[in-house]
Specification:
The protein is mostly helical and 338 residues long. It has one domain. It is 70% helix and 1% strand. It has a two-stranded parallel sheet with strand order 1-2. Helix 10 runs antiparallel to helix 12. The chain starts with 26 loop residues before the first strand and ends with a helix. The N terminus is likely disordered.
């Protein structure tokens, strides 16, 4: 997982924490679709790089990383409406889960280091199939293209879904095979979420507040443990934490009162900072490299998104209003003295 705040940087090439409770086995060292995983072609592409395209591809790599997606969720939960943020999380989190689960089962090696751009970040021990950047960016991009109301947001989504996957091949960190399968899984994730969205919402409305959140968290925790790897269990824990935090905070409690653009920007900064701080705090849990620790760390991040971020934002707003009222009181006292 390409998360500076959550990345397990010390893990070895093998997956010592991969328990494989479902007994699915692994596929190692086999090249499927060999003409899309050609090492020599990868070396040729590396020799023909252009500085301008390299800089653009590195920017796209940062834009398509999981840390950017989590930062975006923090900003949406604090400065925008919660329904949109939850819908976005409903696409991003399954995509990350599926990608990390498939990577743990298909342990295909990365392209040779000589073919990679020297500034391209690759997590130690992270396998190549399928491309996480390609899958997650396509899932997010297609979601924006289908759900966004504004045309420019739709265009941004389509641009992300096309350019970020291509940048992974250009930087030499993935074979075309990895990107093609990642794109297919990203589109499949959006389709699956769209199919399950209506029955899930109907179940959510029928269930009483409180038990529904913990029921969903329990289901996500069991699924996370069954994946056998913390990097798949983590986003499932985030999903469960979102449900519990959503019930704790309530739908109306932290509704924004038509803030100005400046206030909305400040709230987004506060929300993003809260999520990043929570991510840094849960790093010791992820370093334990067990599915249980991954679920627990994800749950804390999810609760921070739906409960901690609104609470922090609300406290900042109340502090702003308190200072504003104090200023009015001082001005009125000065007028009386005069």
């Amino acid at each position: 997982m390409h998360l500076p705040m959550l990345h397990i940087s010390s893990r070895a090439r093998e997956f010592p924490y991969d328990e494989d409770p479902l007994q699915l086995g692994t596929v190692e060292g086999r090249d499927w679709i060999p003409w899309l995983a050609d090492r020599e072609a990868q070396m040729v592409r590396a020799q023909n790089r252009i500085p301008e395209l390299s800089a653009t591809s590195l920017f796209l790599a940062a834009l398509g990383s999981e840390v950017t997606h989590f930062a975006l969720l923090g900003g949406l939960f604090s400065a925008y409406d919660r329904e949109t943020a939850l819908s976005l999380a409903g696409v991003v989190l399954p995509s990350v889960t599926i990608n990390q689960f498939v990577k743990a089962r298909f342990r295909f090696p990365r392209p040779p280091s000589e073919a990679m751009h020297p500034w391209a970040f690759v997590a130690p021990g992270d396998y190549t199939f399928p491309s996480g950047h390609a899958q997650n960016s396509v899932a997010l991009g297609v979601f924006l293209a289908l759900k966004a109301k504004r045309l420019w947001v739709r265009m941004v989504g389509l641009t992300m879904a096309t350019t970020i996957p291509l940048s992974r091949v250009y930087l030499g960190v993935h074979y075309p095979r990895d990107v093609v399968v990642g794109v297919a899984l990203g589109v499949g994730t959006v389709a699956g979420v769209g199919y399950l969205e209506k029955p899930f919402k109907e179940w959510w409305v029928r269930m009483p507040r409180g038990p529904r959140g913990f029921t969903f968290l329990f289901g996500c925790s069991i699924a996370g443990l069954l994946t056998g790897t913390p990097l798949s269990a983590f986003p499932l824990g985030v999903a469960g934490g979102l449900a519990v935090g959503h019930d704790f905070s309530g739908q109306q409690r932290f509704r924004l009162d038509q803030p100005t653009r400046r206030q909305r920007l400040m709230q987004a900064v506060v929300g993003t900072g809260t999520v990043m701080a929570t991510g840094m705090a849960v790093r010791p849990l992820l370093k334990r490299e067990t599915p249980a620790s991954g679920v627990l760390a994800g749950t804390l991040v999810g609760i921070a998104l739906t409960f901690g971020v609104p609470v922090t934002t609300n406290l900042v707003k109340r502090l702003h209003y308190w200072r504003k009222d104090r200023k009015k009181v001082k001005q009125s006292r000065k007028k009386r003295v005069r």
